[in-house]
Amino acid sequence: MADNAVQTAAQAATDSRPLKVAARAGYSISGVLHLLIAYIIVGLAFGSAGNADQSGALATLSAQPAGAVALWLTAAGLVALALWRIAEAVLGSHPSEPGQEHHGAYDVFDRIKSAALAVVYVGIAIAAVRFANGSGQSNGEQNTGLTAQLLQTGWGKCVLLIAAAAIIGVGGYHVYKGLSTKFEEDLTVAGGGPLITPLGIAGYTAKGVVLGGAGILLVVATATADPAKGAGLDAAVKSLGQAPFGKTLLVAAAMGFTAYGAYCFVLARFARM
């Protein structure tokens, strides 16, 4: 009975045109955030300071005229996208497409992925509200503090290694999805196109490489008891800058995030819902 009620509520949500429009707007908001991260990475390449992650993007938004309004709109769009992902977790991917069957291991994977994305979007929305209220914090600082706490116990180190494996897995999946052009299955336009396909390949691959780097750094943080290396996306990006040809690598990463941000606008228009 409870399961039927949840499915009925999820189906009613996906039949709502306002929610579909808001969820598509959420893709555009995600695109803006990724473009801001790319902008911050370019600044890092040429000596500027900044946090190359979602908190840095939100801080950049908050510093603009009417920044608080933009942050509240950001939170609203991401919550709508999170609600759509929750509906996908309940009903299966692309729930507004009638007659689509949902079964098998791949469907289970898609449902878990949708639930995880919903958590991510809600987390960023909460951060946006905090920045709008003037209480926003750097993701890197929060991650470093949490890593330092977990490093104090054996079970905490196990949690960190599990999290690192998950992040590396997510990064690897992004790279796979980009290079295999599997992202085209999420679009209503067949075959992607001469512009959309290159954007998806570059965007997913670049983001996957950086996410994988963040996971590897978390393993290093656990092995060396150095919580600073567990700062997440920002630490991964800045580690590129410290490598040989660091400026070139940072510019390449910025181009990749720019491509992913642009692809988010493609999703806003052509995503299968």
Describe this structure in words.
By secondary structure, the chain is mostly helical. It has one domain. 76% of the residues lie in helices and 0% in strands. The protein is built from ten helices and no strands. It starts with a helix and ends with a helix. Keywords: Membrane, Transmembrane, Transmembrane helix. It comes from Mycolicibacterium sphagni.
Which segments are poorly predicted (pLDDT under 50) over 5 or more consecutive residues?
Answer: none
User: How much is the average pLDDT?
Assistant: 89
Q: How many structurally independent domains? A: 1
Structural class: mainly alpha
Rg over alpha carbons: 19 Å
> Helix count?
10
| Number of E strands | 0
Shape: globular
Distance N to C terminus: 26 Å
Helicity level: over 70%
What is the succession of H and E elements? Answer: HHHHHHHHHH
How would you characterize the largest beta sheet?
none
Range of strand content = under 5%
Protein name: DUF1206 domain-containing protein
Keywords: Membrane, Transmembrane, Transmembrane helix
Transmembrane segments: 25-47, 68-87, 115-133, 154-176, 249-271
Domain DUF1206: 25-91, 113-179, 202-270
